[in-house]
Automatic annotation (TrEMBL):
Keyword Nucleus: no
Domain of life: Eukaryota
Name the UniProt record assigns to this protein: Carbohydrate sulfotransferase
Lineage: Eukaryota, Metazoa, Chordata, Craniata, Vertebrata
Keyword Transferase attributed: yes
Protein topology in the membrane: Single-pass type II membrane protein
Gene: Chst8_0
Pfam families for this protein: Sulfotransfer_2
Length: 165
């Protein structure tokens, strides 16, 4: 049904038979990131009008999951990992290693296509930043965020997530 497939076409516009056929013909890759790091990144990019991280988090919690922005909506709600069988799940902080593996599996030259990543530096920076920003939150906000992202935390292994505590 390629005549119906354009860059703007969303999966929900197809019937179940078409969806199964399409998903079976693609290599499906899901990129995941610790929910707290996604929130920090969104806040740092200036999305929203909150003056502090704590007030930004409160806005996110007040809006709720159903009206959440794609930038912070739980991944389980966005990407449906329980319904779609992804071929690869790539974790932020391990991009160089995992993308290299993906490119090799696809038969593509790794060195010429893979940009220079500094995964260990990114992990350290976001670890430090997460600790600083998380400490700004009240105990109630921390609990609410853990609940807000409970399905992401259950579905993916975010080994050093402050929300898992």
């Amino acid at each position: 049904h390629s005549w119906r497939h354009t860059l703007e076409t969303q999966l929900r516009e197809f019937n179940l038979t078409e969806i199964k056929a399409m998903l079976g013909s693609y290599t499906k890759v899901l990129f995941v990131r610790d929910p707290l790091q996604r929130l920090i990144s969104t806040f740092m990019q200036g999305t929203g009008s909150s003056p502090s991280f704590s007030s930004f988090v409160q806005d996110v919690l007040d809006i709720g999951q159903h009206n959440a922005s794609v930038a912070w909506k739980p991944l389980v709600r966005l990407c449906q990992p329980c319904l779609i069988q992804y071929d690869y799940v790539v974790m932020f902080g391990f991009l160089r290693q995992e993308l290299g593996h993906l490119l090799r599996r696809a038969g593509l030259p790794v060195d010429s296509l893979l940009p220079e990543f500094t995964d260990s530096q990114a992990r350290w920076t976001y670890g430090w930043l997460s600790e600083q920003m998380f400490s700004e939150l009240s105990l109630q906000q921390k609990r609410q965020l853990s609940h807000f992202y409970r399905w992401d935390l259950a579905a993916f292994t975010f080994s050093n997530s402050f929300l898992s505590d």
